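A reminder from the course coordinator: this example appears on the midterm review sheet, so study it carefully.

Given structure:
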């Protein structure tokens, strides 16, 4: 068979499966068999992959604690003419995984870096989310503690494009509660769990309903998951806002409790519902 790694001295950034082994591409298999060395996030995880495909390349670890030091080593091996591969435990390297410093060092040294695309949880989740995908922002993992997490969510609550988050199963309940608080219970969202695996689950609903579902069913707090959230509705043009929003709020507040009125106007206008609620309460106090 013709060698794929003909250009010696290249770094191949190879995607591996996120669950289903059949997602490993034929090109990835061939390159992993041909390269002189592999840099892997966890050498034991990579051994399982090599057993599956029947190869045994020399492997070195590459993780966030040794990445800078490894970058120098990778560059000098590539400059000596070796072909090397970079893989992570699952999915596409560098996507919430190590490798960026190594790739940057290769570019700085004029070394060619070759992508070998494949599975990636962000893209897989987006592709089944049923939410707009023309513009999206990958937010990776939110802060683990609620205070900084809410701060981050407040800062992105009005972004109009779809938001994608990675989250660990033991934090999903708390994160959904913060999402409801900061982005509103009515915001459309999709949970994509255990993609390409036996218990794959994709549910599209609203943040409020998803929060209740995950709280009720402990199975939804297992495995790996991606959260996709629709962007905020575009706020209307500024001049129109100041004229219409207070009127709308005042009319609705005559018919509904203030919180409900504020939530509906927030959904229609793109304003923060807490700001609207505050303005409603303060205008009532002033009467
Ligand atoms: N590099 C990987 C990629 O290309 O998707 C991501 C690595 S990141 C450390 C691991 C996170 O990816 C998990 O916490 C989860 O949010 C997401 N993830 C990975 N595999 C998944 C799967 N099969 N189903 C759903 N989410 C997954």
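Designed residues:
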């Amino acid at each position: 068979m013709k060698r794929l790694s003909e250009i010696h001295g290249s770094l191949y950034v190879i995607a591996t499966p996120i669950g289903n082994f059949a997602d490993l591409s034929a090109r990835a298999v061939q390159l992993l068999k041909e390269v002189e060395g592999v840099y892997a996030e966890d050498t034991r995880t990579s051994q399982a992959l090599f057993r599956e495909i029947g190869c045994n390349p020399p492997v070195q670890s590459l993780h966030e604690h040794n990445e800078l030091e490894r970058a120098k080593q990778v560059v000098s091996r590539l400059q000596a003419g070796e072909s090397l591969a970079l893989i992570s435990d699952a999915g596409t390297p560098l996507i919430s995984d190590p490798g960026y410093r190594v790739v940057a060092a290769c570019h700085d040294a004029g070394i060619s870096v070759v992508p070998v695309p494949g599975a990636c949880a962000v893209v897989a989740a987006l592709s089944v989310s049923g939410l707009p995908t023309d513009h999206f922002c990958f937010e990776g993992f939110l802060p683990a503690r609620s205070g900084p997490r809410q701060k981050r969510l407040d800062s992105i609550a009005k972004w109009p494009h779809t938001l994608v988050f990675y989250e660990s199963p033991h934090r999903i309940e708390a994160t959904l509660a913060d999402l409801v608080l900061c982005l509103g219970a009515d915001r459309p969202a999709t949970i994509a769990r255990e993609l390409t695996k036996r218990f794959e689950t994709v549910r599209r609903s609203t943040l409020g309903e998803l929060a209740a579902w995950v709280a009720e069913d402990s199975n939804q707090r297992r495995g790996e998951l991606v959260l996709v959230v629709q962007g905020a509705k575009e706020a209307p043009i500024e001049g129109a806002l100041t004229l219409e929003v207070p009127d709308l709020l005042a009319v609705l507040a005559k018919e509904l409790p203030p919180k409900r009125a504020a939530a509906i106007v927030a959904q229609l206008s793109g304003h923060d519902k807490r700001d609207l609620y505050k303005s409603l309460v303060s205008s009532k106090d002033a009467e």
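The mean pLDDT is 92. The longest helix spans residues 238-255.
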